[in-house]
Design goal:
6 helices; 127 residues; five-stranded parallel beta sheet; alpha/beta; single chain
């Protein structure tokens, strides 16, 4: 069972978490990057799902992703970057280190996208 960390300050994440749990993923949710790093130190996740904006935080989505990429516990973690404002954020994702960008229309299929991303990682390891 793959572990997923959702870092997002919106209540909509409960719906995401429920859909992932129904597909067999172990899901943990935190509201901000500071909580995320405390969790990551003890439980490095297979996948991190994060938003582009955080309330009351020194991080935004791209700075958080960059910090995750530098964190040694996350060297194998995949990152999914979510945004309600697809056009505004999509151009920043490649430079931030995210593995996948999901806009509003894609979030309903989060389990599918997550499974596909993990399959790509497995194939890359086997090569």
């Amino acid at each position: 069972m793959a572990s997923v960390l959702i870092v997002h300050s919106d209540n909509a994440t409960e719906m995401w978490a429920a859909s992932l749990r129904a597909k067999g993923f172990a899901v943990h949710r935190v509201c901000n990057p500071e909580e995320a790093f405390l969790y990551i130190d003890e439980h490095p996740p297979a996948v991190i799902v994060t938003d582009s904006q955080f309330r009351m935080s020194a991080f935004n989505g791209t700075t958080f992703i960059s910090a995750v990429r530098e964190h040694k516990a996350c060297s194998l973690s995949r990152i999914i970057f979510c945004s309600k404002q697809r056009q505004a954020d999509e151009r920043h994702v490649p430079s931030s280190g995210a593995d996948l960008f999901l806009g509003p229309a894609d979030l309903g299929n989060l389990p599918y996208h997550l499974t596909r991303l993990l399959s790509q990682r497995r194939r890359a390891r086997q090569s």
